[in-house]
Fold this protein.
Amino acid sequence: MKKAIIAQSGGPTSVINSSLAGAISSFIENDFDNIFLSINGIEGIINGNIKEVDKKRFVSNNIDKKLMARPSSILGSCRFKLPESFNDGIYEKIFDNLKKLDISSLIYIGGNDSMDTVMKLNSYMKNKSIKNINIIGCPKTIDNDLCEMDHSPGFGSAAKYINTTIQSLRADVDIYNLKSVTFVEIMGRNAGWLAASSLVSNYKKDKKFVNLLYLPEEKKSLDEIIDEIKKELESENNLIVAVAEGFMDTEDKLNIDMFSNTDDGFNHKIVAGVASRLADIVRNKLNIKSRAVELNIVQRSNILISKTDSKEAYELGSLAAKLSIESTNLIPILNRQKGEDYDISYQAVNPEKIANKEKKIPQAWIKDEKKLEKEIIAYTLPLINGEVKQEYENGLPVFVNLKDFIMEKDL
């Protein structure tokens, strides 16, 4: 008997359900007897909040395609950090519950913090000589900060949304013949990949759509920022300034409104408000129109899904399921092949190489403004290619629901 369980964890993306679709489809193709779904990540396994996939309905109703068009985590999520000590009863409870279901494969879809969970569960198995279950991670994050891989599933769709939004913003800010600065706050606490991706909006344009960019990898003083804005205003009336949510000036003056007193369970402070703070400072110092646009969570869970991003996320989910048949303690990754045409290959690495680590923009790019723009455009353009078709009813998108492909009976 082969039985699998799948969970989603951490922040959502527009393609996290594509990985779920790939994993479920692969388990069905490999004749797994039962496929279970944990609700709210590892917490679902701990609390026994588990559903079972109706394999016949999943296949006959083309649920895989519908999942690929549905943003955010359909299984719900969590930010639950497993304890460092194996003496904590939580591990015993997890594996007792997995044993009750006779699970042979566990797929955990998440980011670098979620891979910490995969790593710890495998370490516990090794410590306790548990050999009847394989636990595999499946990567995702819009932040694009996962090590060992060219790019992270979810980044392409978020970048597609960001650049589409900036195109619309440019059409708006240019209508008035007056000086203005619009700050666009983009997700990215420590890594500025998403904010930098906004430079794609400058591709083949007669003028800059994004005039200035501020990343967490490079601090600047407020005086430098004001001087750069003044210089840009000499040749352009209306500026768009992309700023990562984690950007901080050298004197930490922006930190006043930026950090909340809460964290997400992995000791990551919730950050927001840098664009508003900058807009206030520019308005007061330069006496011009200045505003902030905070893209917030919509950039990670929107329906403008990149077809390339969705396909790659699906393949990673499928590979994770296949790996779990005979292996444990692995994470499937993707890497870009050298050459003019965009092509990728898939491999697998141990979670220790990804868990609790961050990949940042190379300093060699950041030091040269023109190089950064050239590299980011070449890097990002293939990832935003194509669109996943959406179903509409009464003018609004219709998403697949969990009840559409799970068993009606309770476990």
In short: The first strand starts at residue 3 and ends at 8. The CA atoms of residues 83 and 143 lie 25 Å apart. The chain has a mean pLDDT of 95.
